[in-house]
Design brief:
The protein is mainly β. It has 2 domains: 166 residues, Phage tail protein beta-alpha-beta fold, CATH 3.55.50; 181 residues, Sandwich (Jelly Rolls). The chain contains 4 helices and 29 strands. The two termini are 32 Å apart.
């Protein structure tokens, strides 16, 4: 069993994309309430054209009830299901808005262009905004403007800040920063989710205000921050280097493959190890990768990525269990919904931009 799991875990993305069979390991325990963790792996290839026809091959494992015997390993044959032709729910694309405090508003896409705003020069190259190119990145110049990159639902965008720090913003996210960083500190504000590759500068720490009194301070490192207002937990996951995380009166220092978590409902703040920090950044490589996630969190992620409204009226999604799921998010939402149906039994119906879930 371990050998099979390791085989899948260590696959390259190319191998994963070409996978047509998958191993599902199902674990369930009865501790007075049903808890389920489903390990499901899905693979697909899709070419999106004006008239898209989906062919989906996936295997999924579901748990019907708590298993009194402890652990069970389940193998399934390959299933094929035809998706809905012409679904409106295409995956997110490279799109955002740049808004300056001087009233400027600029649409950002994957089209190469040059933008001049508030005395700062920017270029869009290969679908990425390179900020401050051609202007000084050090020292807050007179007339230094504050900027916001706003990524809507159904969007994703990469920005290079004036200090050459790279930030990838997930759907429904916002990053605020100046057109030139001050001499003593490089301060930004994040709402939503962002992956940071911070340019090293020992003289000017890089700080991220993630809301809810959660602040991150680094010199140069790689980390992911998830801080959505509609998801009750703020997570900071370290990929490389070292970061300090302050939450209210608590200060911690993370090492690689550690995660700081603040739960707004309980008020708890703690640090825990993660098996692989790459899980937290899978979205930057085109994958959904959830580990022991409540179904409600998974649904919210789908709403953001596909710009969909998903209604589950009368259903307590989180009561259905926790799930670990990995599959591509480069294609239409239909294969994702089919996989969720396989592992939860939930049916779905589309009506315009709304998807209704039911049993």
């Amino acid at each position: 069993m371990k050998e099979n799991t390791d085989l899948i875990t260590n696959m390259t993305e190319e191998e994963f994309d070409s996978l047509v069979e998958r191993l599902a390991e199902v674990k369930a325990t009865d501790d007075g309430r049903v808890r389920r963790t489903v390990y499901a792996y899905a693979a697909k290839k899709a070419k999106r054209q004006r008239r898209t026809r989906f062919l989906r091959r996936a295997v999924a494992a579901g748990v019907a009830a708590a298993l009194l015997t402890g652990v069970s390993v389940v193998w399934f044959n390959v299933m094929r299901r035809t998706g809905v032709e012409g679904s409106e729910f295409a995956p997110a694309s490279s799109y955002a808005m740049l808004i300056t405090d001087t009233g400027g508003s600029f649409e950002l896409s994957d089209r190469d262009t040059t933008i001049v705003a508030g005395g700062a020069n920017m270029v869009i190259r290969n679908g990425e905004l390179i900020f401050g190119e051609g202007s000084a990145a050090h020292g807050a110049a007179e007339g230094n403007t504050q900027n916001r990159i706003v990524v809507p639902r159904g969007g994703i965008y990469t920005v290079w800040l004036p200090d050459s720090t790279k930030v990838i913003l997930n759907s429904d996210s916002e990053l605020a920063f100046p057109s030139a960083f001050a001499d003593g500190e490089r301060a930004v504000t994040l709402r939503g989710e962002g992956y940071f590759e911070v340019a090293r500068d020992t003289r000017r720490p890089f700080t991220v205000d993630a809301g809810d009194d959660v602040n991150i301070r680094v010199l140069g490192t790689k980390f992911n921050v998830q801080a959505y207002a509609d998801i009750p937990q703020t997570q900071v996951t370290l990929v490389e280097g070292s970061v300090g995380v302050r939450c209210k009166e608590a200060d911690v220092t993370l090492e690689p493959d550690q995660q700081a978590l603040f739960d707004r409902v309980s008020g708890s703040f703690f640090v825990s190890p993660v098996a692989d920090a790459a899980v937290a950044t899978a979205w930057t490589r085109g994958y959904f990768d959830f580990e022991a996630a409540p179904l409600g969190v998974i649904i919210k992620s789908l709403e953001k990525w596909y710009d969909a409204d998903i209604s589950a009226e009368g259903i307590d999604l989180d009561a259905l269990g926790i799930f670990s799921l990995r599959m591509s998010r480069r294609g239409d939402i239909v294969p994702v919904l089919n996989t969720l149906h396989d592992i939860t039994g939930l049916n779905y119906r589309m009506d315009g931009r709304t998807i209704y879930l039911s049993f």
